[in-house]
Amino acid sequence: MSKPKVIIIGAGFTGVATAHDLALRGFDVVVVERGEIASGTSGRTHGVLHSGGRYAVSDQESAVECIDENMILRKIVPQVIEPNGGLFIAIDESDLAYAEEFIEGCNACHIPIQELTARQALEMEPNLNPKVLAAFTVPDGTFDPLRLALSFAASARKNGARFRTYTEMEQLIIDGQGNVTGVKVWDRTTDTHEEIYADLVVNATGAWVGEIASHAGAHVPIKPTPGVMVAFDQRLVQRVINRLNKPGDGDIVLPQRRMMVVGTTSFEVTDLDYVPVVEDQVKIMLERGEELVPGIRKTNVRGAYMATRPLIGGGSTGRSIARTFKCFDHKETDNIDGLVTITGGKATTLRAMAEKTADVVCQKMGVQAVCTTKEVPLLSYRDYYLQNN
Amino acid sequence: MSTPKWVVTFQIYRKKGNADPHFDEFKLEVSPDEYVLDGIERVWAFHDRSLAFRHACHHSTCGACGMRVNGAEKLTCITLIRDVTQDGGVLRIEPMRNFPVVSDLAVDMGILYTRMEMVEHQPVNSDAKEAIQPEARPAGPVGEEEDYIRLSDCIECGLCISACPISGSSPEYLGPAVLAGAHQHGIKGNEQLLKLVDSEDGVWRCHSAFECTAVCPSFVEPGWRIMDLRKQVIGERFKRLFRGSSPKIIDTMEASK
Amino acid sequence: MTGVSKTSPLSRAAKWFDPRARTISTIGFILNRITALGLSFYLFLHLIMLGQLAQGPQAYDGFLATVHSPIFVFGEVLVIAAGFIHGLNGIRIALNSFGVGARYQKATFLVLLSIAVICSLIFAVRIFTV
């Protein structure tokens, strides 16, 4: 008997992780991606391996997902992570007032924190704002976005998954009953079109899921929410520096290679394919970043860029939307079979999103297979390209 | 917007399948403070959806967007349009040389990644405090890095290999990034790596054009590292000469460890 | 390695001599290649000339007359200049390979090139005025 076949649309974090999970569970997987691996939102993530501290007060479901997945990723893909921890620092009275809720939240979400005096914090990170009032350590980290995605893709490939990059989905192929049976794609490297059929199609296109699902007449409540990030050409801190307060604009400074990245803002757009960098927002990043690490003033901007978060929105907007993820079986939501959508979530929770999606796929197709991605170490990201030769 | 807009013509190299390559022109209104990659992405978004190019992080950590801009190798995500052309000017965008072209501006990085693995280059360094402080590095202090684990400086973008005249004429030459990777890993006590570096396609193939160092966006200084590797290789050879030990004996010593 | 370059080795090597969009270091690289080719060519000519001398006194006189023509004297200056450039540049590369001054190779190149130019000029003046 041949393997059950699944097409995954999108080779961002969710797509590659789902490909890895399904390939391990014995599926025949084809991933179609219009660009390269991680050329949409995933590649442009700032790269914080979240401890969950940021969401410990307002969004505890996401916080728990973050801390659990943080620990798993450190274990299965250490080659792409700078696991140096992070700090939440209080600069003013309102930050200090937030401390109590923060401690409670972290305890509730089993996020290990340690309180530091201002002096201890400055000893650890001499370039912090000297006005720091209090600080907490958290197990944050930093990762390289492309290499994280490539590690999953390399492992998926080794287990038989096929990656069709520069191959854009043009249409979902729909049978007489309105169910999805495959995709019509355009290979942009050869300018040719073809049809690929499968038992199931997974829509893992992040902020673009709404657009893709609409091809089948299905609906996904997605709220694409871009944010700006600015990279600076010096590494003045060794840990991820968070503002001890409710999540807001420009309240994270993270080290990466020889740089620092400050993020981020939050607004809404309609055209997802190109989101321009707004100068005013870059200015906000500079100002807010300086409040955490004043030395930023003396560094140079190395790059400024936008990424569009896929938030699952009901009525609420922006910061108040939960950062958790959701898998939609369109048989249940729209009475369309053969299509599953996964979206929302954080880069940190990519593996969990894949597990959830693969569970739904297995259940829909009557396949008995357990998830092993928590334990299986990933291949080196280089293996993805090695296998080309 | 505070800065006045420029009109710039993007001349982009195009290649699909087995068809002959050609250049397409796109006239764009840009801000001089945008990056070259922003312009290329806009060409894809608004003018020609068939344009294939590699990009991911947009801030010089992933190394995907290396291209040739007016002939010079650039990491397009951090290259300001202001620095490479003027109002009414032209930007000729071509894929990197010395790599197989997949389509348009996208190249296959397989050769580089395979060789980086061959020389055991570590993607993360626990000992980030390097003995060298390159003169060319504007990136300033990295801080006291005793125990911090840091992603390596080399982002495997391939620009140095594209700029190297020898990589162009001898595809077997390991190439600047790869030799720099070997240097960073260290050849001391690593017989296999020493052999590779000292081989016909290793450090001796370099002919000192130093273009690798000139184009490196990450201040890895491959040129300097190749020269330093030569010194180390010469040192090893001298040691052998006076110790009178043949490589065979060393091999058995390694094996008995 | 598929598809890296389908062109012939010669046309690939021809790209060595294209200085567009390159730095001063490539000028050094190109000069070294040109002078090497030039000096090899000279050696070849030199051997032919020596062969001529073995054919008797008449041939020798004819030869002397030819080499005193301005074109040949100019050629001699080129040979000397090539010798200086290649030799001095070679010293730089050898030093770099022993780990000496690789970081300052650009400055070293400019200094040595200046010395080569000055020395060549001195020789040129002397040759043409003698």
What keyword list fits this structure?
heterotrimer; A: 389 residues; alpha+beta; FAD/NAD(P)-binding domain; D-Amino Acid Oxidase, Chain A, domain 2; 2 domains; eight-stranded mixed beta sheet; six-stranded mixed beta sheet; 29% helix; B: 257 residues; Ubiquitin-like (UB roll); Fumarate Reductase Iron-sulfur Protein, Chain B, domain 2; five-stranded mixed beta sheet; two-stranded antiparallel sheet; 10 helices; 35% helix; 16% strand; elongated; disordered C terminus
Radius of gyration of chain A: 21 Å
Note poorly predicted spans of chain C: 1-5
Largest interface: A-B, 64 and 59 residues
The counted number of beta strands of chain C is: 0
Tell me the radius of gyration of chain C: 19 Å
Stated plainly, the CATH topology of the largest domain in chain A is called FAD/NAD(P)-binding domain
| Average pLDDT number of chain A | 94
Write down how many β-strands of chain A occur, each being a DSSP E stretch of 2 or more residues: 20
Give the strand content of chain A: 25-35%
Task: Briefly note the structural class of the backbone of chain A.
Answer: alpha+beta
CATH superfamily of the largest domain in chain A: FAD/NAD(P)-binding domain
Helix content of chain C: over 70%
Describe the structure in your own words.
The complex is a heterotrimer of chains A (389), B (257) and C (130). The two termini of chain A are 30 Å apart. The mean pLDDT of chain A is 94. In chain A, a hairpin with a 5-residue loop joins strand 10 and strand 11. In chain A, helix 1 packs parallel to helix 5 and helix 1 crosses helix 9. Chain A has an 8-stranded mixed β-sheet with strand order 6-7-5-15-16-17-14-18. In chain A, strands 9-2-1-13-20-19 form a 6-stranded mixed β-sheet. Chain A is of the alpha+beta class and 389 residues long. Chain A is elongated. In chain B, a hairpin with a 2-residue loop joins strand 3 and strand 4. Chain B has 10 helices and 9 strands. In chain B, 52% of the residues are buried. The C terminus of chain B is likely disordered. In chain B, the strands form 3 sheets. In chain B, strands 2-1-5-3-4 form a 5-stranded mixed β-sheet. Chain B has 2 domains: 102 residues, Beta-grasp domain (Ubiquitin-like (UB roll), Roll); 147 residues, Fumarate Reductase Iron-sulfur Protein, Chain B, domain 2 (Orthogonal Bundle), CATH 1.10.1060. By secondary structure, chain C is an all-alpha fold. In chain C, helix 2 crosses helix 4 and helix 4 runs antiparallel to helix 5. Chain C is globular, with a radius of gyration of 19 Å. The chains are: A alpha+beta (389), B alpha+beta (257), C mainly alpha (130). Chains A and B meet through strand 4, helix 5, strand 18 and helix 10 of A and helix 1, helix 3 and strand 9 of B.
